[in-house]
């Protein structure tokens, strides 16, 4: 039987209380919401926190709302809530694409947006999606709050820029007219981590790309974004030729690791193919063709 | 630490280690061994039980997190001697072979049918997609859930008798055919 090391348990009833608890433990406590990543890591003793702080009662962080020109998602919003949200489907098809392939329905019952981001797994779907969308993360501490682009949230695999006594409370995503988005993932079986995945976000102005986000999951790219491909596409139309070049650039930027999910050559191939597919579908959606 | 958890309608107060997982609390502290324990990592879904109103993988929930909440396990599916239609369906359609995944599958099926009384095959397959049957007997599991569809979960409260779920001696009268716990 694999069992976590002895650990204290505390339940927070407000963000302030959770922040106080984090502060008291001086970096040796971990927040727990869904628990699907943290608890296996605790069982393997990869993580041995002094205390786990249960934040499932922080219903104040469970919301989806449109505010002006952006949409806000509270960090404790469950994956199933995101998947069921019509307002999210209306603005960000990519989020529904991704949520359909994040783990499985039972894990999505409990897993949270904030937990996915803060786990900072290089293969995590939502991190790639929100990086493609150029979302921002709102981070609170006892002294105030700060906003960090999701593209800069990770500080290496399984590490974020959050300080010990900070909590990610919200992600904000800009709402843009003429935008389309899509997520393409290859996995070994339902619910698995990606072999490779690509998220694409396009803003088209008269058929020309005025803004673009391309994020790659499980492909070894720093901060997960194919910036060369983004720079190339900006100001161009989406054609077979420009898609082929964007796919080539994304594959060239990829530094995947060979593992049980496949060799490097296969993953690079996926980076190319999935980039073209995601961009094509995003463009079709932006132009109302699907 | 002390926890107060209502399991299958019965309140339990226990002194536990705060590192104890919900699956082990159910199996070892309460002796409710119907909830099986498989992969440890939220992959296989064998340990699925309900936390409040929803199926969860109890191998990745601390028992402490269930303090003050309700849990429903496979032992809470039957209504006294009357089996839940899902349990009847698993027997009628040979929905289990080794039986290891069966309790979790049934808890997921019950939740699905409570929210979608007439699911098609694709919906059933999606609902159980986070659970692994080691015998790979999915065809019969899907048929078992279809069999249960449309049958009320508490037939004793429903109007009219249903021979598939009400007092069928072949179903509830033979211990050898009871769903393994």
From TrEMBL, chain A:
InterPro entries: CO_DH_flav_C (IPR005107), CO_DH_flav_C_dom_sf (IPR036683), Diverse_Substr_Oxidored (IPR051312), FAD-bd_PCMH (IPR016166), FAD-bd_PCMH-like_sf (IPR036318), FAD-bd_PCMH_sub1 (IPR016167), FAD-bd_PCMH_sub2 (IPR016169), Mopterin_DH_FAD-bd (IPR002346). GO terms for molecular function: FAD binding; oxidoreductase activity. Residues 2-178 form the FAD-binding PCMH-type domain. The keyword Nucleotide-binding does not apply. This is Molybdopterin dehydrogenase FAD-binding. Transmembrane segments: none annotated. The keyword Flavoprotein applies. SMART domains: CO_deh_flav_C (SM01092). Keywords: FAD, Flavoprotein, Oxidoreductase.
From TrEMBL, chain B:
Residues 148-181 are annotated as: Disordered. Residues 5-56 form the 2Fe-2S ferredoxin-type domain. GO terms for molecular function: 2 iron, 2 sulfur cluster binding; metal ion binding; oxidoreductase activity. Signal peptide: none annotated. Keywords: 2Fe-2S, Iron, Iron-sulfur, Metal-binding, Oxidoreductase. Residues 155-170 have a biased composition (Low complexity). It holds the Pfam family Fer2_2. The keyword Oxidoreductase applies. It comes from the Bacteria. This is (2Fe-2S)-binding domain protein. It comes from Nakamurella multipartita (strain ATCC 700099 / DSM 44233 / CIP 104796 / JCM 9543 / NBRC 105858 / Y-104).
């Amino acid at each position: 039987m694999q069992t976590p090391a002895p650990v204290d348990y505390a339940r927070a009833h407000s963000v302030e209380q959770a922040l106080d608890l984090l502060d008291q433990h001086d970096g040796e406590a971990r927040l727990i919401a869904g628990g699907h990543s943290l608890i296996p890591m605790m069982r393997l003793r990869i993580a041995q926190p002094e205390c786990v702080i249960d934040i499932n009662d922080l219903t104040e962080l469970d919301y989806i709302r449109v505010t002006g020109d952006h949409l806000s998602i509270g960090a404790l919003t469950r994956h199933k809530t995101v998947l069921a949200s019509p307002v999210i489907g209306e603005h960000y098809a990519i989020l529904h694409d991704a949520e359909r392939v994040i783990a499985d329905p039972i894990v999505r019952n409990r897993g949270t947006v904030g937990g996915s981001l803060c786990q900072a797994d290089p293969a995590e779907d939502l991190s790639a999606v929100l990086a493609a969308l150029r979302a921002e993360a709102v981070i609170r501490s006892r002294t105030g709050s700060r906003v960090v682009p999701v593209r800069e949230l990770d500080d290496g695999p399984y590490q974020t820029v959050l300080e010990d006594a900070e909590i990610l409370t919200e992600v904000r995503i800009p709402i843009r007219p003429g935008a389309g988005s899509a997520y393409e993932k290859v996995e070994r079986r339902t619910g698995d981590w990606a072999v490779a995945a690509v998220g694409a976000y396009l803003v088209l102005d008269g058929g020309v790309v005025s803004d673009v986000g391309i994020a790659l999951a499980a492909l070894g790219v720093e901060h997960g974004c194919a910036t060369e491909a983004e720079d190339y596409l900006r100001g161009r139309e989406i054609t077979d030729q420009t898609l082929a070049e964007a796919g080539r650039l994304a594959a060239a930027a990829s530094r995947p690791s060979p593992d049980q999910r496949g060799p490097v050559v296969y993953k690079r191939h996926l980076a190319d193919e999935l980039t073209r597919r995601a961009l094509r579908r995003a463009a079709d959606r932006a132009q109302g063709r699907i | 630490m002390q926890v107060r958890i209502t399991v299958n309608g019965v309140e339990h107060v226990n002194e536990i280690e705060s590192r104890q997982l919900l699956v082990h609390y159910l199996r070892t502290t309460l002796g409710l061994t119907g909830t099986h324990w498989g992969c440890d990592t939220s992959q296989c879904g064998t340990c699925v039980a309900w936390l409040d109103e929803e199926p969860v993988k109890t191998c990745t929930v601390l028992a402490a997190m269930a303090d003050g909440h309700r849990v429903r396990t496979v032992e809470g599916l039957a209504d006294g001697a009357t089996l839940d239609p899902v349990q009847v369906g698993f027997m009628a359609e040979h929905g289990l072979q080794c039986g290891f995944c069966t309790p979790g599958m049934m808890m997921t099926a019950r939740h699905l049918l409570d929210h979608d009384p007439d699911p098609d095959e694709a919906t059933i397959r999606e609902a159980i997609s986070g659970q692994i049957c080691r015998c790979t007997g999915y065809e019969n599991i899907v048929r078992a859930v279809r069999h249960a569809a449309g049958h009320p979960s508490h037939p004793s409260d429903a109007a009219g008798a249903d021979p598939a779920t009400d007092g069928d001696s072949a179903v509830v009268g033979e211990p050898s055919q009871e769903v393994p716990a």
